[in-house]
Amino acid sequence: MKGQQISRTAVVWQLLAVALVVLPHLQWLPLWVPVLVVASLGARLMIHRGRWSFPHWSVKTALVVASSGGLILSFNHQAGPETMVALLVVALALKLLEIYHRRDALIVLFVTLFVAATAFLFNESVWMAGYILLVVILTLAALNSIQQASDANRYRDNLKTALHMLLPAIPFMLVLFFLFPRLEPFWSVTIDTATAKTGLSDELSPGDISELSQSSELAFRATFSGEVPPPDQRYWRALVLSHFDGRRWSRPEPAVRHSLRAEKLTPLSPEQPYDVIMEASGRPWLVALDQPVAVEPGLRMSAVRTLHLDAPLERRRQYQASAVTRYRLQPLLTSAERQHYLQLPASGNPQSRALAQRLLAANNGDPQAVIRQLLAQFNREFIYTLAPGRLGSDSVDRFLFDSQQGYCEHFTSATAFVLRSADIPARVVTGYQGGEWNPYERYLQVRQYDAHAWVEVWLDGEGWQRLDPTSAVAPERIRTSAGEFFNANNERFSRGGLELEWLRDMRQRYDAFNYAWQRWVLNYQGQQSDLLKDWLGGSEQWRLILAWLLPTAAVFGGVAWWQLRPRRVRIKDPLERALLRLQQRLTGENCRRQPAESLSMWLQRIAGYWPEQQSQMLRLAWLDDQQRYAAGADQTMRTEMLQLCRQLLRELPGRRIP
Amino acid sequence: MVSEWRHALRARMRRWVLSRQRPARSHRLTQNRIFILPTRAGSAFLLVLLLMLVMAINYENNLIYALTFLLLGIFMVAIFHTYSNLAGIEVRVLDAAPCFATESAGFELELCRHSTRRFEQLTFTLERQGEPCVVDLLQPRQALRLYCPAPRRGWLNPGGVKVETTYPLGLFRAWAWLNLDMKTLVYPLPLEAPLPASLQPAAGHGRDAITQRNGDDDFAGLERFQPGMSPRQVDWKSYARGRGLHAKHFAGHQDPDLWLDLDALGSEALEKRLSRLTAWVLELSARDVRFGLRLGQFVLTPARGEGHRVRALSALALYGLEDAS
């Protein structure tokens, strides 16, 4: 096997497969690797065309030493997947220069397949999947080609064989894909994607969320198994910020955070289960619909009912949770907690503090009336805008008394400040509000521009209540999604051109497709047990085995039949076909045509068995000799022969042994 | 140690497989003859798949899972493709030509396919060594010749024939052992030596003598020409007159017959004497001289011609051997 030379076709296939498999990796490999690959492909092509000869061993050694050095310098001893892929790509490039035999080619192609798999570590789109499928087809064609004779030159046959082998493997793959249990990773790995992600930060200062409103990047998608909550109930909480330093709201110190009691929740409406696929955010928290009551194991719920992970979310993640939309949360506060939610800096924003006192006095200390009056004021005098302009120090004062225009974070921050000044416990919640409903795949899609901030206020006897000052100043923002809202108010909110109806429809369809891809392919594992139970009517071991065995047997039975099906030699010439049928008809003991007999000898020998047809048979024999050997044979003879043949076939009884 | 053990296992298996078949002039490759196992490349492929699976598990990457399963599917499909690259072929013995010891005996086989399927890269190997022969069966029929080294005189049985293929992907090897009924005679190696004087056809005999004899009147008559007679004996005149081919017969000048006698060659080693006799048989046949052969009890009456030569050589090949059947 080692000694077998490979054909020129095989070399071309291999170069093609290697070139294509390296292509998707080029964008992140250090520049010298692509240069090496291109140089090596070029050199191999020149060798293939006979212009150059194979490099001397000293050249190869120098290349190996140089590229090892390059790898060490470029990757600096990191042992991540990038290093591994770079190493493999460099090895491929160098191995290309010494493909002589089958074994060399096999090594190249197996490494090619492995590198093809690594492409999915960096890009999981459906396009990449299609592209890798193409690479697999080329690699199979190359594998087939190296097995052929070294003078074989049949590109089309290689491709046909590759497709013939690939197609039956696809159903096999699907069955295994859906049934194979997903195991826990053997050791923890991280992929350094190294791009700063946009998304919520763990603080809130003026301008943070309006910045996010410029990004249409996907934040997460959610599906509901029951009823879909109406738009004004779609509050996705991510963080609770209860510490204010005069400008910025942030989470309390970890020590304080841990001292808070887990808040007690009494549901007043049924639980609503839902599924979220959250995009990688690079931050260790998830979103949950207000208010989460149950989450799947593996997620932590904090004291203030937000979801957290142990490590930053570096990969897209799917999780399940359920929520109640009406509830009573923590009806009693300890004095320490009350202290905590009334915390304000010692000084600053004097006008706002004065306003709080005025409101409190005007409403006889009734917190609900204070809130109503504050919101009414927002509704009358304030403008909701993405471009509120800069606020200096004492940002709450500047907002409330000077600019009077702002985005949700301005309203939220000011409301929380005023309430705390009025001795009403309050805190800021950040997250997302709304989302776009995709009718094709029936899911809610929430983008970064849906980021939102609102207030939770604690009322005696009722506990924590959601209070969204934005709904007072721009109620349509809450009722519709942020995308629609900005489109409708295009003049006021400079967010690029108006989206056309059909363009939006196309975008939604494309998005639905991507979503299905993510839900069914990329994140297929969580729903596995339920889905299989539905499909198979149970999840016992034997059902799984049967579900795997039956389709697999069907597929391979099909392949075996297709490969071994009788494929008769089809004779195109009608005369030849008729003569063959005549011979097949006359297969009796004595009249079978012997290998040494010519057609005319055979006919002459057996003509005597059928006295009635004797003359036709002899005529046929004579004609056959004539048309084969005599000069001036023409088409009329063949026509006559054909007629004779057909006549004999009609008249002679089948399989009668004379 | 392991390789020895493997070798022994393979030999045992081969003997078992061959013993289940009756030797025949033709065999068709069917499922009870064909064996299939992964090649080394196939095992390496599985190893690559295993690494890919580990990668898929570790990075929790479903697309790598899918690719791994796809390639596993292709691996399985390859079983059927490799198998079908052998199944249905008919192997037939066409010819087994005799040869001289130390040469290689050639066995001509014919492959037939009974469908339009293409069979590629079939490797034929004889059980008893010999160069493998790789053929593509793209036509309905295809002949191939296998050579088997023939170190000794006597019957040469090349043993079973192995047909194997790793086509189309090289991941699997399908093979079959065929017990083909083919054996051939190996003649002793001719040992060139001048004919001793006692065996020299007298001057005026042999080829030159015939030319001289044309002028003689000892012409005894015509006999019907048989293939193997020298064209010099043909009576061209009668042929020209349209009376058919006849050979002149000179009865009166019957030569004293030449006898090749094993015992008369002294006390040299048996094989050496046989080799010498072989050389002389060839020489005398080439000169178209009548000769007889005496090998101990065995006597071949003097004659000449192709048939006589073959009988003489066969006798020499088998002299003193057990399986002289």
From TrEMBL, chain A:
<feature type="transmembrane region" description="Helical">
    <location>
        <begin position="128"/>
        <end position="146"/>
    </location>
</feature>
<feature type="transmembrane region" description="Helical">
    <location>
        <begin position="105"/>
        <end position="122"/>
    </location>
</feature>
<feature type="transmembrane region" description="Helical">
    <location>
        <begin position="7"/>
        <end position="23"/>
    </location>
</feature>
<dbReference type="InterPro" id="IPR021878">
    <property type="entry name" value="TgpA_N"/>
</dbReference>
<dbReference type="InterPro" id="IPR052901">
    <property type="entry name" value="Bact_TGase-like"/>
</dbReference>
<dbReference type="InterPro" id="IPR002931">
    <property type="entry name" value="Transglutaminase-like"/>
</dbReference>
<keyword id="KW-0472">Membrane</keyword>
<feature type="transmembrane region" description="Helical">
    <location>
        <begin position="542"/>
        <end position="562"/>
    </location>
</feature>
<feature type="domain" description="Transglutaminase-like">
    <location>
        <begin position="400"/>
        <end position="471"/>
    </location>
</feature>
<keyword id="KW-0812">Transmembrane</keyword>
<dbReference type="Pfam" id="PF11992">
    <property type="entry name" value="TgpA_N"/>
</dbReference>
<feature type="transmembrane region" description="Helical">
    <location>
        <begin position="59"/>
        <end position="77"/>
    </location>
</feature>
<dbReference type="Pfam" id="PF01841">
    <property type="entry name" value="Transglut_core"/>
</dbReference>
<dbReference type="InterPro" id="IPR038765">
    <property type="entry name" value="Papain-like_cys_pep_sf"/>
</dbReference>
<protein>
    <submittedName>
        <fullName>Transglutaminase superfamily protein</fullName>
    </submittedName>
</protein>
<keyword id="KW-1133">Transmembrane helix</keyword>
<feature type="transmembrane region" description="Helical">
    <location>
        <begin position="158"/>
        <end position="180"/>
    </location>
</feature>
UniProtKB/TrEMBL annotation, chain B:
<keyword id="KW-0472">Membrane</keyword>
<keyword id="KW-1133">Transmembrane helix</keyword>
<feature type="transmembrane region" description="Helical">
    <location>
        <begin position="63"/>
        <end position="83"/>
    </location>
</feature>
<keyword id="KW-0812">Transmembrane</keyword>
<feature type="transmembrane region" description="Helical">
    <location>
        <begin position="34"/>
        <end position="57"/>
    </location>
</feature>
<protein>
    <submittedName>
        <fullName>Uncharacterized protein (DUF58 family)</fullName>
    </submittedName>
</protein>
